[in-house]
Amino acid sequence: MALIVQKYGGTSVKDVDRIQNVARRVKSFVDQGNQVVVVVSARGGVTNELVDRAKEINPHPAEREMDMLLACGEQETIALTAMALHAIGQPAVSRLGYQAGFVTDKEHTRARIIDITGGDIKERLALGEVVIVAGFQGQNTEGEITTLGRGGSDLSAVALAAGLKADLCQIFTDVEGVYTADPRVVPNARKINEISYEEMLELASMGSKVMQARSVEFAQKHGVIFEVRSSFNDQPGTIVKAEVPSMEDVVVSGVALDKNQAKITVSDLPDKPGTAALVFQALGAANVIVDMIVQNVGRGGAANLTFTVAKDDIHRAVGTVEKALENYSGVKVNYTGDIAKLSVVGVGMRSHAGVAATLFDILAKHSVNIQMISTSEIRISVAIDLDNAVKAAQAVHDGFHLDQLA
Amino acid sequence: MALIVQKYGGTSVKDVDRIQNVARRVKSFVDQGNQVVVVVSARGGVTNELVDRAKEINPHPAEREMDMLLACGEQETIALTAMALHAIGQPAVSRLGYQAGFVTDKEHTRARIIDITGGDIKERLALGEVVIVAGFQGQNTEGEITTLGRGGSDLSAVALAAGLKADLCQIFTDVEGVYTADPRVVPNARKINEISYEEMLELASMGSKVMQARSVEFAQKHGVIFEVRSSFNDQPGTIVKAEVPSMEDVVVSGVALDKNQAKITVSDLPDKPGTAALVFQALGAANVIVDMIVQNVGRGGAANLTFTVAKDDIHRAVGTVEKALENYSGVKVNYTGDIAKLSVVGVGMRSHAGVAATLFDILAKHSVNIQMISTSEIRISVAIDLDNAVKAAQAVHDGFHLDQLA
């Protein structure tokens, strides 16, 4: 008998039919002899509806009250899911975040979990009940409702699995697992059976939408093995776990493409200490996240500084840079929104040389110009023209033979 | 400086506009130097929507899960109301039932309040904040969310006023107060300025829809003076409080008409002890509430038993009675759904004789036949033909000069 924590996201509990599907799936795991704890999100669309109503009343709603408001979404789903289980003869009980012992800090709308007691979950499981827990929400030490921010329900599930020392954590979602590339971009992309936390983190931060990095980090820190799989079929998904030696046999595990990038170039910047810091401090203060950065010395000893930001931030970023540098005459700020970032990720890079050379060779053969490069221990990213993005991703996927099982 | 508890029902917080109206009204009371605690219901229609969704999933949803589900409705409203107050510069904070210290028994969907601590409401008021409390909900001693059943938000407000020792409790609703009669039936009906708990209770149980009897009973028991008034204008409403001697100057305070009655007659019942008990025990077991009862002896020593029930219960009631009496041959069960109950209510009846005589005289002059009579210390009710109901109500209202201020 295994203790399994299952998480179902908003699309999986969107309406009555889908909630009934979730109930049947949960029951099938119970019938196989498992104890099951279910973490659910708000029904798809409900959170946005609540946010819209709030903004209509107050364009800048207090974060504490936003948490009070948004916590309703999951509360509705846990009650309906319990009723759906009862309807098919499966004893079940719902639990709000605070009832399941989610203790958080006081940062409303983006609270961090500081403890999970689990409440009476183990007792209820021992009685043969399924326990359905509201994801995304907790309570701070002052008794106020808090929410965990984006991807909060995944985090709830992983954290609960850690707190309960569950045997397995399953993240049911609308994709079948983690792929070697986005199948909409690379049609012969393949589902990965096993992947390390590090690779999953690199893919998450490279724009792969499967899971937020914080949930993966939490799982890694607490050694929670989890599976990402589809809530619409019975196929096994992708197991995410600590790196094992055999994983290094695969040099590159996946290709990620982020088409939502913009590039800013500041030219003829005086090449003296502190000017780059000036630019990035101003961007940090304006809450603009900078991704890749390249600096080189141009004509006459002046420096050129190039960096990428999310496309949505481009105008705010350019304005911030221009203001920060208004006392430097002759400095020019140019930008383009037509940039993509292509990354190859794999723990095998640690032990295999030549991955960068292979990547650059593939891109050159397909006439894709590399504008910027950045690397981590298990990742190489290049900034390229948006027009070349799809062609490049397909070529790199093929070039590293990612369509073939290792 | 007064401490006021204000309650706004579902129609008063139905949409964004109305929530903003409520916020402006609340702020005006604060600006006059009062401390204000606001109790709100779910937005109009939300509770029914949730119930419908639940029944679609499970025709017999567990009451515990219904409470979990329905409590969402008020949670949404408190957050939105707090945001609306913030938007007009009024500090405010929302509180769920359990955060406001509503402790109830374990009867899900119809819990009774066993204690109200108020939580930190007094501290927050002292900081200049408005505290917005979710009506209708509490928590039992096992930490489970409970709801108070029909009229629960009124009860929350009255109970909170008692717990906080508030100076005044205001029930804002979609009527302007308590009237001498339903203005849709009696056009010259007049708003009553002051009424006693007893009269309010008699009117509530006579089908006047202003408030559920349990809230009035709670107010009476704990000496909470409350005002029923409109949330759509600034007119004073009706103050409900303990009887004072001057109230007895008014012999009749109001006329109530209940058109939702049906009459059942059981004839030729053996006139021996226990047969009436048999009938009413069976009806009680079938959850049919019996209102007026008349028994008399008919032909040949057999008894006739006549009683009224709510029109919705008529078929269930007749079936139950027929089954209970199936071993008594010759008994006949007849019924009619075309009955109305007209009541006159007033604490003045205690000290004024002749009210019944006046009532019967008025009805006789208007050719209205009286089918049954029942009385309490401060009420006389008669069952009449439904066809005569409106005419009779107008005649009685005029006959007791209720259109004129006492």
Question: What does this 3D model show about the protein?
Answer:
The structure is a homodimer of 406-residue chains. Chain A has 406 residues and is of the alpha/beta class. Chain A has two domains: 3-174, Acetylglutamate kinase-like (Carbamate kinase), CATH 3.40.1160.10; 255-399, VC0802-like. Chain A is built from eleven helices and 18 strands. Chain A has helices spanning 16-31, 46-57, 63-87, 121-126, 152-163, 197-205, 213-222, 275-285, 314-324, 355-365, 389-399, and strands at 3-8, 35-40, 92-95, 102-104, 113-116, 130-134, 137-140, 145-147, 168-173, 194-196, 226-230, 238-241, 254-269, 290-297, 303-310, 332-345, 372-376, 379-385. In chain A, the strands form three sheets. Chain A has an eight-stranded mixed sheet, sandwiched between helices. Chain A is globular, with a radius of gyration of 24 Å. The two termini of chain A are 32 Å apart. Chain A binds chain B through residues 16, 19-20, 50, 53-54, 56-59, 61-62, 64-66, 68-69, 71-72, 75-76, 78-80, 82-84, 86-87, 93-94, 96, 99, 143, 145, and chain B through 16, 19-20, 50, 53-54, 56-58, 61-62, 64-66, 68-69, 71-72, 75-76, 78-80, 82-84, 86-87, 93-94, 96, 99, 143, 145.
Short description:
2 copies of one chain form a homodimer. In chain A, 33% of the residues lie in helices and 27% in strands. By secondary structure, the first copy, chain A, is of the alpha/beta class.
- The biggest beta sheet of chain A, please? 8 strands, mixed
Q: How many beta-strand elements of chain A?
A: 18
Structural class based on helices, strands and sheet pairing of chain A = alpha/beta
Kindly state the mean pLDDT of chain A as a whole number?
A: 92
